[in-house]
Amino acid sequence: MDTNTLAPEITDGVDLYQLLQISYDASEAEIRRAYRKTSIKYHPDKNSGADAAQKFQLLLLALETLTTPVLRTKYDGLMRARTQKSQRDQALSLERRRLQSDLERREAQAAILTSRAFNQHQLKKHHVDTLKEEGVKRRKTKDTNIVSTLTSTEDGSSKDKTSKTVFIKWIASKSDNITESQLCNLLKPYGPIKSVHIVLSNTQPSISKTIKGLILFQSDQSALNCYQLLKNKSFPSNDEFFNNIKSVYYQNVLSSSQSDKPDVEQPYSYTRNVSIEEKIARIRIKLKS
Protein backbone atom coordinates (compact mmCIF):
# COMPACT_ATOMS: atom_id res chain seq x y z
CA MET A 1 0.00 0.00 0.00
CA ASP A 2 1.26 3.45 -0.93
CA THR A 3 1.96 5.33 2.28
CA ASN A 4 0.94 8.61 0.67
CA THR A 5 -2.35 7.53 -0.91
CA LEU A 6 -5.50 6.15 0.68
CA ALA A 7 -6.62 2.75 -0.50
CA PRO A 8 -9.57 2.77 -2.92
CA GLU A 9 -11.68 1.02 -0.29
CA ILE A 10 -11.19 3.92 2.12
CA THR A 11 -13.89 6.50 1.31
CA ASP A 12 -15.84 9.07 3.30
CA GLY A 13 -18.55 6.46 3.62
CA VAL A 14 -16.30 4.17 5.67
CA ASP A 15 -15.84 5.18 9.31
CA LEU A 16 -12.64 3.42 10.46
CA TYR A 17 -12.93 4.81 14.00
CA GLN A 18 -16.39 3.33 14.35
CA LEU A 19 -15.16 0.06 12.84
CA LEU A 20 -12.53 -0.22 15.59
CA GLN A 21 -14.89 1.32 18.16
CA ILE A 22 -12.41 4.01 19.20
CA SER A 23 -12.52 7.79 19.53
CA TYR A 24 -11.34 10.13 16.78
CA ASP A 25 -8.37 11.27 18.89
CA ALA A 26 -7.25 7.74 19.88
CA SER A 27 -3.51 7.14 20.20
CA GLU A 28 -1.57 4.62 18.09
CA ALA A 29 -1.44 2.21 21.03
CA GLU A 30 -5.23 2.41 21.45
CA ILE A 31 -5.64 1.83 17.73
CA ARG A 32 -3.46 -1.32 17.75
CA ARG A 33 -5.16 -2.67 20.86
CA ALA A 34 -8.59 -2.15 19.31
CA TYR A 35 -7.41 -3.81 16.11
CA ARG A 36 -6.22 -6.95 17.90
CA LYS A 37 -9.47 -7.22 19.81
CA THR A 38 -11.69 -6.75 16.78
CA SER A 39 -9.67 -8.75 14.25
CA ILE A 40 -10.00 -11.92 16.32
CA LYS A 41 -13.72 -12.02 15.51
CA TYR A 42 -13.13 -11.94 11.78
CA HIS A 43 -9.82 -13.83 11.43
CA PRO A 44 -10.03 -16.38 8.58
CA ASP A 45 -8.91 -19.14 10.93
CA LYS A 46 -12.00 -18.62 13.11
CA ASN A 47 -14.53 -17.33 10.61
CA SER A 48 -14.62 -18.64 7.07
CA GLY A 49 -17.51 -16.53 5.79
CA ALA A 50 -17.06 -14.21 2.79
CA ASP A 51 -18.30 -11.23 4.78
CA ALA A 52 -15.83 -12.01 7.54
CA ALA A 53 -12.94 -12.07 5.08
CA GLN A 54 -13.93 -8.66 3.70
CA LYS A 55 -14.29 -7.28 7.19
CA PHE A 56 -10.87 -8.63 8.21
CA GLN A 57 -9.29 -7.06 5.13
CA LEU A 58 -10.92 -3.72 5.99
CA LEU A 59 -9.54 -3.97 9.56
CA LEU A 60 -6.04 -4.34 8.15
CA LEU A 61 -6.55 -1.21 6.03
CA ALA A 62 -7.89 0.62 9.08
CA LEU A 63 -4.83 -0.31 11.12
CA GLU A 64 -2.44 0.77 8.39
CA THR A 65 -4.30 4.00 7.64
CA LEU A 66 -4.69 5.17 11.23
CA THR A 67 -1.12 4.26 12.29
CA THR A 68 0.44 6.03 9.30
CA PRO A 69 0.50 9.78 10.06
CA VAL A 70 0.22 10.93 6.44
CA LEU A 71 -2.64 8.56 5.67
CA ARG A 72 -4.42 9.36 8.93
CA THR A 73 -4.18 13.08 8.18
CA LYS A 74 -5.69 12.55 4.74
CA TYR A 75 -8.37 10.27 6.15
CA ASP A 76 -9.27 12.71 8.94
CA GLY A 77 -9.55 15.49 6.33
CA LEU A 78 -11.87 13.28 4.30
CA MET A 79 -14.04 12.63 7.36
CA ARG A 80 -14.13 16.33 8.29
CA ALA A 81 -15.27 17.15 4.76
CA ARG A 82 -18.00 14.53 5.09
CA THR A 83 -19.12 15.98 8.42
CA GLN A 84 -19.19 19.51 7.02
CA LYS A 85 -21.15 18.34 4.00
CA SER A 86 -23.61 16.58 6.27
CA GLN A 87 -24.03 19.74 8.32
CA ARG A 88 -24.57 21.82 5.18
CA ASP A 89 -27.10 19.33 3.89
CA GLN A 90 -28.89 19.39 7.22
CA ALA A 91 -28.92 23.19 7.21
CA LEU A 92 -30.22 23.21 3.65
CA SER A 93 -32.84 20.68 4.60
CA LEU A 94 -33.96 22.87 7.49
CA GLU A 95 -34.02 25.91 5.18
CA ARG A 96 -36.03 23.99 2.59
CA ARG A 97 -38.49 22.93 5.25
CA ARG A 98 -38.71 26.52 6.46
CA LEU A 99 -39.27 27.79 2.93
CA GLN A 100 -41.81 25.07 2.26
CA SER A 101 -43.64 25.93 5.46
CA ASP A 102 -43.55 29.64 4.58
CA LEU A 103 -44.84 28.87 1.08
CA GLU A 104 -47.70 26.79 2.44
CA ARG A 105 -48.54 29.56 4.92
CA ARG A 106 -48.58 32.18 2.14
CA GLU A 107 -50.70 29.95 -0.07
CA ALA A 108 -53.17 29.45 2.76
CA GLN A 109 -53.34 33.22 3.35
CA ALA A 110 -53.80 33.83 -0.38
CA ALA A 111 -56.61 31.28 -0.47
CA ILE A 112 -58.32 33.03 2.45
CA LEU A 113 -57.96 36.45 0.80
CA THR A 114 -59.21 35.09 -2.52
CA SER A 115 -62.20 33.50 -0.84
CA ARG A 116 -62.90 36.70 1.10
CA ALA A 117 -62.63 38.81 -2.07
CA PHE A 118 -64.95 36.41 -3.90
CA ASN A 119 -67.48 36.57 -1.09
CA GLN A 120 -67.32 40.38 -1.06
CA HIS A 121 -67.80 40.41 -4.84
CA GLN A 122 -70.80 38.11 -4.51
CA LEU A 123 -72.28 40.29 -1.77
CA LYS A 124 -71.73 43.43 -3.85
CA LYS A 125 -73.25 41.78 -6.91
CA HIS A 126 -76.23 40.62 -4.85
CA HIS A 127 -76.64 44.15 -3.49
CA VAL A 128 -76.52 45.65 -7.00
CA ASP A 129 -79.00 43.06 -8.30
CA THR A 130 -81.30 43.79 -5.37
CA LEU A 131 -81.15 47.54 -6.09
CA LYS A 132 -81.93 46.88 -9.75
CA GLU A 133 -84.91 44.71 -8.82
CA GLU A 134 -86.17 47.32 -6.38
CA GLY A 135 -85.76 50.00 -9.06
CA VAL A 136 -87.77 47.95 -11.54
CA LYS A 137 -90.47 47.38 -8.92
CA ARG A 138 -90.61 51.08 -8.06
CA ARG A 139 -90.82 52.01 -11.75
CA LYS A 140 -93.58 49.48 -12.33
CA THR A 141 -95.44 50.71 -9.25
CA LYS A 142 -95.12 54.30 -10.42
CA ASP A 143 -96.38 53.41 -13.91
CA THR A 144 -99.26 51.49 -12.38
CA ASN A 145 -100.14 54.43 -10.15
CA ILE A 146 -100.08 56.78 -13.13
CA VAL A 147 -102.44 54.60 -15.13
CA SER A 148 -104.58 54.03 -12.04
CA THR A 149 -104.84 57.79 -11.53
CA LEU A 150 -105.81 58.35 -15.14
CA THR A 151 -108.32 55.51 -15.03
CA SER A 152 -109.89 56.73 -11.79
CA THR A 153 -110.18 60.20 -13.31
CA GLU A 154 -112.16 58.82 -16.22
CA ASP A 155 -114.34 56.60 -14.03
CA GLY A 156 -114.85 59.10 -11.20
CA SER A 157 -117.80 60.97 -12.64
CA SER A 158 -120.53 59.93 -15.03
CA LYS A 159 -121.45 63.57 -15.65
CA ASP A 160 -118.00 64.90 -16.48
CA LYS A 161 -116.42 62.61 -19.06
CA THR A 162 -113.74 64.98 -20.28
CA SER A 163 -110.14 64.40 -19.27
CA LYS A 164 -108.27 66.52 -16.77
CA THR A 165 -104.84 65.37 -17.93
CA VAL A 166 -102.32 67.22 -20.08
CA PHE A 167 -99.28 65.45 -21.49
CA ILE A 168 -96.16 67.56 -22.08
CA LYS A 169 -93.00 66.34 -23.78
CA TRP A 170 -89.86 68.46 -23.54
CA ILE A 171 -86.15 68.29 -24.24
CA ALA A 172 -84.00 68.75 -21.16
CA SER A 173 -80.28 69.33 -21.04
CA LYS A 174 -78.12 66.73 -19.36
CA SER A 175 -77.69 68.92 -16.29
CA ASP A 176 -81.44 69.64 -16.01
CA ASN A 177 -83.08 67.97 -13.05
CA ILE A 178 -86.60 69.40 -12.88
CA THR A 179 -88.74 67.81 -10.19
CA GLU A 180 -92.44 67.08 -10.12
CA SER A 181 -92.85 69.81 -7.51
CA GLN A 182 -91.09 72.36 -9.74
CA LEU A 183 -93.18 71.33 -12.75
CA CYS A 184 -96.32 71.77 -10.66
CA ASN A 185 -95.25 75.31 -9.66
CA LEU A 186 -94.55 76.21 -13.30
CA LEU A 187 -97.97 75.08 -14.53
CA LYS A 188 -100.27 75.98 -11.64
CA PRO A 189 -100.98 79.45 -13.15
CA TYR A 190 -103.17 77.60 -15.68
CA GLY A 191 -105.33 76.17 -12.90
CA PRO A 192 -105.37 74.05 -9.74
CA ILE A 193 -103.33 70.86 -10.15
CA LYS A 194 -104.16 67.58 -8.47
CA SER A 195 -100.97 65.63 -9.24
CA VAL A 196 -97.88 65.62 -11.47
CA HIS A 197 -95.90 62.65 -12.76
CA ILE A 198 -92.59 62.77 -14.66
CA VAL A 199 -91.46 59.87 -16.85
CA LEU A 200 -88.18 59.62 -18.75
CA SER A 201 -88.73 58.73 -22.40
CA ASN A 202 -85.09 58.03 -23.14
CA THR A 203 -82.84 56.68 -20.36
CA GLN A 204 -79.83 55.99 -22.57
CA PRO A 205 -76.87 58.34 -22.06
CA SER A 206 -76.82 61.15 -24.61
CA ILE A 207 -76.35 64.87 -24.82
CA SER A 208 -80.04 65.47 -24.23
CA LYS A 209 -83.03 63.45 -23.10
CA THR A 210 -86.74 63.58 -23.71
CA ILE A 211 -88.93 63.83 -20.62
CA LYS A 212 -92.66 63.27 -20.39
CA GLY A 213 -94.84 65.02 -17.86
CA LEU A 214 -98.39 63.95 -16.99
CA ILE A 215 -100.29 66.77 -15.28
CA LEU A 216 -103.65 65.99 -13.72
CA PHE A 217 -105.68 69.17 -13.14
CA GLN A 218 -108.58 69.42 -10.75
CA SER A 219 -110.91 70.38 -13.58
CA ASP A 220 -111.16 69.56 -17.26
CA GLN A 221 -111.41 73.26 -18.10
CA SER A 222 -108.05 73.98 -16.43
CA ALA A 223 -106.49 71.09 -18.38
CA LEU A 224 -107.94 72.37 -21.66
CA ASN A 225 -106.80 75.93 -20.92
CA CYS A 226 -103.27 74.69 -20.18
CA TYR A 227 -103.20 72.71 -23.41
CA GLN A 228 -104.44 75.58 -25.56
CA LEU A 229 -102.14 78.21 -24.02
CA LEU A 230 -99.06 76.02 -24.19
CA LYS A 231 -99.94 75.05 -27.75
CA ASN A 232 -100.12 78.74 -28.62
CA LYS A 233 -96.87 79.40 -26.72
CA SER A 234 -98.62 81.61 -24.21
CA PHE A 235 -96.37 80.91 -21.26
CA PRO A 236 -96.93 82.19 -17.69
CA SER A 237 -93.20 82.93 -17.21
CA ASN A 238 -89.89 83.17 -19.03
CA ASP A 239 -88.56 79.98 -17.49
CA GLU A 240 -86.27 78.04 -19.84
CA PHE A 241 -88.51 75.01 -19.42
CA PHE A 242 -91.22 76.48 -21.64
CA ASN A 243 -88.75 77.10 -24.48
CA ASN A 244 -87.74 73.44 -24.36
CA ILE A 245 -91.29 72.09 -24.78
CA LYS A 246 -91.39 69.74 -27.75
CA SER A 247 -95.09 68.87 -27.86
CA VAL A 248 -98.32 69.11 -25.84
CA TYR A 249 -101.21 66.64 -25.81
CA TYR A 250 -104.62 66.74 -24.23
CA GLN A 251 -106.77 63.69 -23.54
CA ASN A 252 -110.32 64.28 -24.73
CA VAL A 253 -112.83 61.48 -24.18
CA LEU A 254 -116.00 63.29 -25.26
CA SER A 255 -118.04 61.49 -27.85
CA SER A 256 -118.14 63.11 -31.29
CA SER A 257 -121.79 64.12 -30.80
CA GLN A 258 -121.12 65.78 -27.44
CA SER A 259 -117.85 67.50 -28.23
CA ASP A 260 -118.19 71.26 -28.55
CA LYS A 261 -114.62 71.91 -27.38
CA PRO A 262 -111.88 73.17 -29.71
CA ASP A 263 -110.24 70.50 -31.81
CA VAL A 264 -107.39 68.92 -29.79
CA GLU A 265 -104.99 66.07 -30.36
CA GLN A 266 -105.89 62.68 -28.86
CA PRO A 267 -102.73 60.61 -28.58
CA TYR A 268 -104.14 58.35 -25.87
CA SER A 269 -107.40 56.47 -25.64
CA TYR A 270 -108.33 54.57 -22.50
CA THR A 271 -111.24 52.17 -22.12
CA ARG A 272 -112.45 50.53 -18.96
CA ASN A 273 -111.80 47.04 -20.36
CA VAL A 274 -108.11 47.62 -21.12
CA SER A 275 -105.70 46.08 -18.59
CA ILE A 276 -103.26 48.21 -16.65
CA GLU A 277 -100.33 46.38 -18.27
CA GLU A 278 -101.62 47.23 -21.74
CA LYS A 279 -102.14 50.86 -20.75
CA ILE A 280 -98.56 51.05 -19.45
CA ALA A 281 -97.30 49.52 -22.69
CA ARG A 282 -99.25 52.07 -24.74
CA ILE A 283 -97.84 54.95 -22.69
CA ARG A 284 -94.28 53.69 -23.06
CA ILE A 285 -94.67 53.25 -26.83
CA LYS A 286 -95.89 56.81 -27.09
CA LEU A 287 -93.08 58.10 -24.86
CA LYS A 288 -90.47 56.52 -27.13
CA SER A 289 -91.94 58.10 -30.25
Please, could you describe this protein's structure?
By secondary structure, this protein is an alpha+beta fold. Among the domains are: 8-87, Orthogonal Bundle (Helix Hairpins), CATH 1.10.287.110; 165-250, Alpha-Beta Plaits. It is 56% helix and 11% strand. It has eight helices and four strands; from the N terminus they run H-H-H-H-E-H-E-E-H-H-E-H. A four-stranded antiparallel sheet has the order 2-3-1-4.
How do the strands and helices of this protein lay out in sequence?
Blueprint: H1 16-20, H2 28-42, H3 50-67, H4 69-155, E1 165-173, H5 180-187, E2 193-200, E3 208-217, H6 220-231, H7 240-243, E4 245-250, H8 276-288
Antiparallel strand pairs: 1-3, 1-4, 2-3
Element pattern in H and E: HHHHEHEEHHEH
- Largest sheet entry: 4 strands, antiparallel
Secondary-structure-derived class: alpha+beta
The fraction of residues in strands falls at: 5-15%
Nearest-integer average pLDDT: 79
- The strand line-up of the biggest sheet is 2-3-1-4
Q: Kindly, what is the distance between the CA atoms of the first and last residues, rounded to a whole number of angstroms? A: 113 Å
As a whole number of angstroms, the C-alpha radius of gyration is 52 Å
Just name the CATH architecture of the domain at 165-250.
2-Layer Sandwich
CATH superfamily of the domain at 165-250: RRM (RNA recognition motif) domain
Give a count of the beta strands, DSSP E runs of length 2 or more. 4
Low-confidence regions: 157-161, 253-274
Helix content estimate:
55-70%
Examine the coordinates and then state which fold CATH places here, giving the name of the CATH topology of the domain at 165-250.
Answer: Alpha-Beta Plaits
Reading off the top of the CATH hierarchy, the class of the domain at 165-250 is best stated as Alpha Beta
- What is the helix tally? 8
Gross morphology: rod-shaped
Subcellular location: Cytoplasm; Nucleus
InterPro entries: DnaJ_domain (IPR001623), J_dom_sf (IPR036869), Nucleotide-bd_a/b_plait_sf (IPR012677), Pre-mRNA-splicing_ERAD (IPR052094), RBD_domain_sf (IPR035979)
GO molecular function: nucleic acid binding
Pfam families: DnaJ
